[in-house]
Each structure stands twice: as structure tokens, then as C-alpha cells.
Amino acid sequence: MEYLSNTYLLYLGLSVLCIAICFIWAKIQPKHVFYSRKTLHIICIGILAISILSVHNNNYLQFVGLLAFIEILLIVAVLKGFFYSEGRRSWGIVYFLPAVILLLLIFPFEKFYIFQSVLILALADGFSALFGRMFERYLESSSNSTLQKIKERNTIQWGSDRKTVFGSLVGFVFVYLICYLHFTYNRDGVLLLAFFIISFIITVTEILGSKGNDNFFMPLVSFLLLKIFIERDVLRPVIDFNDMAFWFYLILFLIIGYFLLRMKWLSISGIVFAGIIALFLFLANWSLFPIIAFFILGTLAGKLNKNVESDKKHSKPRDAFQVLANGGVTLVLSVLYLIYKVWYLEVLMLVSISVASADTLSSEIGMRFGKKTFGILNFRSLPRGVSGGVSWFGFLGAFLGAIMIGVFRIDYFWIIVFAGFLGSIIDSIIGLLFQAKYKRDGQITDIESVEFIGGYRFVTNDMVNVLSNVIVVGICWFFIFALTT
Predict the structure, then answer these.
(1) What is the pLDDT of residues 399-452, one digit of tens each?
(2) Where are the domains of the chain?
């Protein structure tokens, strides 16, 4: 067994030196804490990217072990208050290594793509934050009326963290340049479009991130996008710039997106991620009709209770989190299909949409027509719309929602219907046991208020939707896999 070479000790020493310099910088100039932290981000993660590229296969596990040891040290350091910025612990520093370790363990022979993914995190994420903050400070210090108007339009508030348009553009450019400089072969219009799509999706992933969790998701998303659009080259068989159909569908998508925004069915972030899901379903050559049917039925059903405030997002345009809560598993399945080409992933996609459809129609029909709502486990009376509450009309809605999706695959009709109905039940159980509950005007509610009475504050309706979907798809995956092997 070979041990790690002294080169890695050099990389580790440079990282420790960088940490020390940035800490001294922050102590001497407290106003520059943000800049010192981002400089540390760029240099240390950049060093990690280079070290990945130079690791040998015969000491791969030792390298992963070293990263795991460093991760433990970072967690301890954050808990001890060493990484503290802008009034909170900087947990982002501990998020990127688990993603890198995961990639190294699952794809041990894909060092170049992992290197690219980590480099994107180092440069695109780091410089987008740096230049975004610098431009923001410049706008704040200016009294020019034109710059003040730009300042008003420079903010993006998709997640809990506030991002800037300028910083996001910087990040986009860095991702595009990294792809452009590293992939020089067969560089034609299709590949340039692939670079654009990769850069766009990584950028919106960073925008949606909050409290540093984009450090975990960005390397994973970057790696998968590089595998799909560069290695698999999935655009080439389906894109023809000389084909009028390509431009027709592109213009049609933009028109539909505009009207969905005007009709307040989706927010801007919702449209972006709905478009991403539609893109990957199209590339997987899966029908778009099931998810379109779910979206239309779910949105129209929501109009039944437009005057009812069951949670803070109810009857409002669906944002990115709501779109991903209902379609995120479908997106992941389509990505897996593009990599592995396993037939039953299409069935699981329908199962996922069936769960989302059953849960949505159960909630809306139950709130509109259900006369008595009770807790699914304790049978205690609950106000309509509270997560975990069910009614007989709600059960009927769940069944109808699942049937609407089951008809798209008759050979697996009953599996899809049963899975959708089961998902609605599991969603209610998780919502009753774990979703945050509050008291407002003497009534139990899911809407956040001063009086917290049960569940976990971080468990939202979107999270419950994702968990129930993942559980049911996982169960069906297990049984389908068991039957086919």
C-alpha cells in the first residue's frame, strides 16, 4: 500500500497558511471579514481541486480518508466559533467536503470531471460573491439616480439568502469560461449551447442556495451536468439549429412562461425550475404530458380554495421550492436515466408525479368539500388545511389525482395509482408528526406565528412533500428492482 506523497502535505500546508493569513486579515480589518472569508473559499477549494487532479488510483482511499479527517476538524472549528461571520456560524465551510467525498467514492475514475466541479465551486461561487458584494457597495455609495435604479433591480431573493444579479452574472461567466477553456474538442454551436445550459443551471443552483448549502449542491450539480452535456453529449441528437421546429418550441416555451407569470401561476424562480425539469424530461425522451396534466390540475384545484390561507404559500404563484418539492424527484430520475439508461426509471417518474398529484388534489378537494377533518393517526378534529389532517373527500381527491397519472402507463396503472394514494397517506403522517405547528387566533395552523406548539420549525410543507415522494419512489424502486433481478 502506497501512502500519500509529500505533495499533499504541501497542499495541506498551503491551505493552513491561507487560513492563518485570512484570520489575521479579519482580525486586523473587521470590516473585511466577508472578503477574507471568500478569499479563503477561493484559494483553499482551488487547492483541493488541483489535489484531486493529481491523486493516484492506488492511494485514492487514503486521500478520501484525509478529506474526512479535515471535515471533522472543520466541524469542530465551526462549533468552537472559529468561522463566524455576519452574526452567524459559517457552516458553508463544512458543506463542500461531503459532496467531494461522495463524488470520489461513487465515481473514483472521473477525476477530471470532479476537478472541474470543485474548480467551479472555488472560482464561480467565490468570485460571484466577491464581485457581487463589491458592486453592491459601489451602488450604495453612489448618489447617481441611474445607479440607484440599478440597485433596486440588483437583488434576487429566491431563498432565505439575498443574492445579486451582478454577482450571479459573474458566476455564470466563470462557469462558462471554465467549460470553454477545458473542452476544446468538437467546439461547435451545440457544445456552446451545452456550456450555456450548464452555466445557467449551476448559476440558479447557487442563487437558490442559502446559509452555505450551495457549497454542497454546486459540485454535485456541476458534475452531473458535465457528465450529461459533455461526456454523453445529449444535446447533439436532438438539437438542429437549421430545424424550424427547434426555434418554434423555444419561442413557444418563452410565450407559455410569460403567460404563466402574468396569470400568477408561477413565480420567476418557479418558471426557471419548471423549464429545467421540462428540459431534462425532453432529453430523456419521456412524455411531458403527465407533469403538464399534474400542473394544470393542481393549479386549477388550488383555485377552489383561493380565499383559504392554509399556509404562507397557498394560493400564491408557485416558487422554485414548490416546483422542486413536487417535481424534484422527477428531475433526479430523468438525470439518472440520462446517465444509466435504466428502463424502470420512467415508471418511477410516473410514480413520483402520481404522489404529487394525489397529495395536491387530496389537500385542495379535502379543504373545499370535506366537512370534518381529523388527524390521520389520532383521529382528533383539526382545522381544514392543517398538515396531517384528512377527510373522506380528501381520500377521494387523492385517489382521483393518482388515477389521472396512472392512465399514462396502463401496464403499471395500479402500481402508479396505489403508490400515489400511499404517498398522500405518508405525506399526512409526516405532516402530523413532524411539520411545524403554530397557534393563531386560538386555532392550530401551519402558518408561522409567534406561538409555536409542535413539530420541528425547519420542517415545512415543501420538505414534507419531498420526503413522502422520496419514500414512495424508494419503496417502488425496491420492489421493481427485486422483481427484475
Answers:
(1) 999 999 999 999 889 999 999 999 999 998 898 888 887 777 767 776 776 677
(2) 6-231, 285-484
Q: What is the model's pLDDT at position 314?
A: 59
Q: Which residue has the cell 420526503?
A: 467
Q: HSE, CB side, 13 Å, CA atoms: give it for residue 453.
A: 13
Q: How far is residue 259 CA from its own chain's centroid? A: 25
- Contact present, 310 and 372 (Cβ < 8 Å): no
Beta bridge partner(s), residue 456? 435
Q: Which residues, in sequence order, are CB contacts of 53 under 8 Å at separation 6+?
A: 111, 112, 115
pLDDT band for position 348 (cuts 50, 70, 90): very high
Distance separating the N- and C-terminal Cα atoms of the chain: 36
Nearest to 334 by CA among 299, 302, 291, 376: 291
For the record, the C-alpha cell of 14 comes out as 498551503
Calpha distance 419→470 (Å, rounded): 11
The whole-angstrom separation of Cα 3 and Cα 59 is 6
CA angle 90, 322, 248 (to 5 degrees): 115
* Long-range residue pairs from 62-70, CB within 8 A, at least 24 positions apart, any chain: 62/3, 62/4, 63/4, 63/8, 63/104, 64/101, 64/104, 64/105, 66/4, 66/8, 66/12, 67/97, 67/100, 67/101, 67/104, 68/97, 68/101, 70/12, 70/97
**Closest to 257 (Cα-Cα) out of 247, 243, 272:** 272
Residue 435 backbone phi and psi in degrees, to 5: -70, 145
Question: Residues 226-257: pLDDT tens digits?
Answer: 999 999 889 988 887 877 777 887 888 889 88
Q: What is the mean pLDDT of the chain?
A: 85
Residue 211, classed as helix, strand or coil, is coil
Query: What is the predicted pLDDT for the residue at 84?
Result: 63
Please choose, from the candidates 335, 364, 331, the residue with its C-alpha nearest in 3D space to the C-alpha of residue 466: 331
Strands (E), 250-330: none
When pLDDT is averaged across residues 115-136 and rounded to a whole number, the result is: 92
Q: How many residues does the chain have?
A: 485
Q: Which residues pair with 164 in a beta bridge?
A: 155
Widest CA span of the chain, in angstroms?
72
